[in-house]
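Issue: ligand-bound run for calcium ion - logging full I/O for the record.

Environment: standard queue, default settings, no custom constraints.

Inputs:
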Amino acid sequence: MTSDPDPIQSCCAPIRGEEQSSDALERVQCPSAERSNGQTVSKWVSLSGDEFRMGTDDRRFLADGEGPIREVSVDGFAISPNPVTNAEFDGFVSATGYVTDAERFGWSFVFKDFVTSEVERRVTQVVQGSEWWWRVDGAYWRMPEGPGSNVDDRADHPVTHVSWQDALAYCEWAGTRLPTEAEWEYASRGGLDQARFVWGDELEPEGRHMCNIWQGEFPGRNTLEDGWHGTSPVGSFAANGYGLYDVAGNVWEWCSDWFSASFHRNARRITRDNPKGPRNGSAKVIRGGSYLCHDSYCNRYRVGARTSNTPDSSTGNLGFRIVTD
Ligand SMILES: [Ca+2]
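Outputs:
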């Protein structure tokens, strides 16, 4: 067991159970290869095992346990170049009739900007301290903004409102698995040693936007300089050095590991040699940041950044990608 406090990083992707009465609403009037089932991944990115320097000594979010920088080895694996899309998740649901956690609970977390005034009238709970996250009844992956919304023109966007448990069910059906946190970071670094971002050290090299995050002032004003308010089609921005898209920004991605801010501090075989995280915990690691990340509030689109969420939580900015051995 870990002695870490329960991780609370609601600004990134809120946790089921944190929603509160909507009195707070008054305070936030918007200023602010091939798989076993025959489906195909456009191409797997095969990576041979190697050592790399994991983590970062950035000290802005100490409670996240981003450090220390440490030599970690991973075995060989193959990873999908993109997060799983709505079209791919639709294939899973159509084949299995799977019901997601958001559907079972009857609601999911939606960012305020995307809620229509009609749906807003029925919103009764928001996340305290992160009042831009609203509990929306009826929101799930096929209706990401609640009743009246759909993903008809977003087939190639990452699926959202999927819990860790939902992602695991998808993996079991597809004959794949979620990446370990070490695999995710190794693949995301794309061969760059200790770069700040997956493409290098500069956020916007030569003025170019390298990922889908937030521009302007969070959470009141998004200037949309990168072209996207919410999710973007996978592959809309440049790939990293290993040919992976959307590892930074767009949507957070589930990893298989339980979250701990301290488990990896001590150099032991289980923390350095193809690590798989603590044996148990209360929340799962998520990586990569999302379209809501902005340096003024949360710059967790850095490649060494990490946070977590509970396995049954779902939000409009949280998805996953898959790996295979
Ligand atoms: Ca954006």
